[in-house]
Write a structure and sequence with these properties.
128 residues, D-Maltodextrin-Binding Protein, domain 2
Amino acid sequence: MSQVESDIGNDDWIVFLGWEPHWMNVDFDIHYHEDPENLWGEASSVSSVVTSDFADDQPNVIAFLENRIIPIEVQDQWVYRYSRQDRPLETVAAEWIRNHPDQVNEWLEGVTTADGQESARAAYQATL
């Protein structure tokens, strides 16, 4: 990344292998080229995996995990703040949750509090 930063700072072109999520996508104006011959393989994804027992025993957690789809741009920002700005993970998460209530509300659709007595959305709204 230091070579990329140097070349960009000198207005030189550079080609390199990049990926997401990564802080480089926040720091640099990057263009990803197509891979029509699939030389680098298929696009990757991050998934939550649980045992079938867990899924049966914890439907509330499963509902949350199924709702929680995180756009790559958001992941880039999280990685940037944690890795590049050297901010504590808990701080990055707490600030993002506080600043994105609409997204958090989508994640909490159909989810209840741990005791099952209240909508998780309502509990979250009470903290705002």
